[in-house]
Amino acid sequence: MPFRIALSGIDAASTDLEVTGHNIANASTVGFKQSRAEFADIYANSIQDVSATTAGRGVRVVRVAQQFSQGGIDFTSNNLDLAINGEGFFIMADAAGNTSYTRAGAFGSDRDGYVVNHAGDRLQVFSPIAGTDNFNTGSTADLQLPSLSGPPSPTSSVVASLNLNATESVPGVAFSPTNAASYNHSTSTTIYDSLGSAHTQTMYYRKAAPNSWEAYTSIDGSIVPLTAAVAGPPAVPAVEAVEINFDNSGAIVPSSGDINATGEVTLTPHPVAGAADITLNFNYSSSTQFGGTFDVNDLSQDGFSSGRLSGIDIDATGVVFARFTNGQSTALGKVAMARFSNPQGMRQLGDTSWAETFTSGDPSVGEAGTSSFGLMQSGALESSNVDIAEQLVNLITAQRNFQANAQVITTADTITQTIINLR
User: Fold this and answer.
1) CB 305 within 8 A of CB 168
2) CB-based burial of residue 266 (10 Å sphere; 0-12 exposed, 13-18 middle, 19+ buried)?
3) Measured distance CA(40)–CA(175) in Å, rounded
4) Contact, 297 vs 162, CB < 8 A?
5) 157-301 adopts what CATH topology?
6) Measured distance between the N- and C-terminal CA atoms of the chain, rounded to whole angstroms
7) Are 219 and 203 in contact (CB under 8 A)?
8) At CA 406, angle to CA 405 and CA 412, rounded to 5?
9) Which residue ranges make up each domain of the chain?
10) Strand, helix or coil for residue 7
11) Whole-number Å distance between alpha carbons of 380 and 390
12) Please, are residues 368 and 316 in contact by the beta-carbon 8 Å criterion?
């Protein structure tokens, strides 16, 4: 019997060595979680209570338990790398739709733009709800990076928030865009037609009278009138200047001059070869006339050209933003997370991935930063939670246990030989 007891001890020590060696081998594996061998003693079952008179029957390995403590965070230069600080797993799906869970966030994109890990499994996200800032948390989808931002959008609205200098004098010559003495101030911006082509829009401001200004607008050097000429006698000429009036406190006067009740004015559609006419609506409602310098507080327009993907940003709550070369950005989704009531019950799949089991319980799917889910760090990876110093001590302990059980076998063998040699 001592042989069997010692043999069980040797088997247990061997398992302990295997577990410790596995931990040490994966000390640099991203998202790896160390294991711990757990043991229990063995006693023979009998109707009679022999616990006080019978030695045990050895030891057995009851389980190899995963230790899901937090690993360190190492920063990288890849924005698609993700680390979880706290509870939760990334949700991955393979081509067949099978789901797995991982803490290894070393992600990249495949030829179709899907965000995948080294095994080709796709990262799952909550899809954005069109027209809102919310996400559909009822289901998950593959995260795919677009190569283009979509079709261009022509400029239709320009917001011009200016301060026109009330102390300026009326120019003494007729307006001409080529004569700087014929206007008081000018400013430019870039606008876009329906094909996404850029055009230079220049605005000239000329004082007409106290508290009254004229605004001229040109596109690529061609003045855009306020109203189109009407054919037939008598001909109505196009009005090139937009009249803007201010009160004695410097605020714009709506419903006066060419400005409507909301402080806006619309110019005549400007033809562009091959594209739709550009129709511009100017919003001057925030413009002022104070006795200070000419200031451009805001000059923005709503058009943009087509663009290509230039970068990806992921915030701490897992929202994935795509940035494009045309200055646009859009939310592609929100990284979905899962957690389990008993993560130690999950089945190891290899490749630092796990699958749910009956013992682990069903996954709770949610968002980073909510409930018990941790936060995400973009451009970082969670390192292994293996403590090398601790594992080396475990290695020595397992070695001593192995040697001690081997010594039991040697001693039992000596006793047996002594008995056999009795005459």
Assistant:
1) no
2) middle
3) 98
4) yes
5) Tick-borne Encephalitis virus Glycoprotein; domain 1 (2.60.98)
6) 23
7) no
8) 90
9) 2-69+386-420, 75-146+333-382, 157-301
10) helix
11) 25
12) yes
- Residues 348 and 65: their CA atoms lie apart, in Å, by 11
The per-residue pLDDT for 53 is 60
Looking at residue 148, its amino acid is L
The β-bridge partners of 279 are none
- Gap between the Cα atoms of 274 and 417, Å rounded: 105
Residues 163, 293: contact at Cβ < 8 Å? yes
- What pLDDT score was predicted for residue 230? 47
Nearest to 258 by CA among 201, 208, 314: 208
Sign of torsion over alpha carbons 91, 95, 97, 98:
negative
Indicate the angle between helix axes 2-25 and 388-420, nearest 10 degrees.
160
Residues found in the chain: 423
**What are the structure tokens assigned to 37, written together?**
């061998």
Q: Are 2 and 408 in contact (CB under 8 A)?
A: yes
CA distance 212 to 192: 30
pLDDT over 70, % of the chain: 94
- Per DSSP, the residues of 282-308 read EE-TT-B--SS--EEEEEEES-B---B
CA dist., res. 171 & res. 162, Å (int): 19
Contact criterion met (CB below 8 Å) for 125 and 365: no
Q: For the ranges 55-69, 278-292, 339-353, which has the lowest average pLDDT?
A: 55-69
Strands 99-102 vs 89-93: parallel, antiparallel or unpaired: antiparallel
352-394 pLDDT per residue, tens:
999 999 999 999 999 999 888 999 999 999 999 999 999 999 9
Task: For the beta carbon of residue 399, count every other beta carbon within 10 angstroms.
Answer: 14
pLDDT in tens, 144-192: 999 887 789 999 999 999 999 999 999 999 999 999 999 999 999 999 9
- Report the Cα 244 to chain-centroid distance in Å: 45
pLDDT at 346 over 50: yes
- Pick from 318, 322, 320: which is nearest to 338 by CA? 318
CB atoms within 10 A of CB 358: 7
On the question of pLDDT at 54 being above 80, the answer is no
Query: How confident is the model at residue 237, as a pLDDT?
Result: 57
For 266-278, the pLDDT digits (tens) are 999 999 999 999 9
d(CA 324, CA 312) in angstroms, rounded, equals 9
